């Protein structure tokens, strides 16, 4: 999914700014996964999205322009 606009289809610059802020990254991360229909991934992000997932999301957003999609279910 590299190259896709993440966080609600917003521009890359806006998405990267949101990814830098831990609270918005956490909220937008699980909301994005729920919108994609990935319920299990959304639930995992609710409980684990505020720690290591946030750091990985930030790196992935910079490198791949998309949040980390470990679970595709």
Gyration radius over CA: 11 Å
Task: Note the main sheet.
Answer: none
- Number-wise, the strands total 0
Structural class: mainly alpha
Ends distance: 15 Å
Uncertain runs are none
Order of helices and strands: HHHH
Round the mean pLDDT to the nearest integer and report it.
83
Strand content: under 5%
Number of helices: 4
The best one-word shape is globular
Classify the oligomer.
single chain
Helix content: 55-70%
Structure in words:
The chain is mainly alpha-helical. The chain has 4 helices and no strands. The chain is globular, with a radius of gyration of 11 Å. The model has no long low-confidence stretch (mean pLDDT about 85).
Short structural summary:
This protein is an all-alpha fold and 73 residues long.
Observed structural traits:
about 70 residues; mainly alpha; 4 helices; about 0% strand
What secondary-structure arrangement, pairings included, does this model have?
Blueprint: H1 12-20, H2 22-35, H3 39-48, H4 52-64
Helix pairs in contact: 1-4, 2-3
């Amino acid at each position: 999914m590299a190259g896709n606009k993440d966080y609600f289809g917003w521009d890359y610059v806006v998405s990267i700014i949101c990814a830098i802020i831990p609270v918005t990254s956490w909220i937008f991360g699980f909301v994005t996964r729920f919108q994609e229909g990935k319920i299990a991934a959304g639930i995992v992000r609710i409980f684990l999205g505020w720690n290591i997932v946030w750091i990985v999301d930030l790196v992935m957003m910079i490198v791949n322009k998309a949040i980390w999609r470990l679970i595709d279910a």
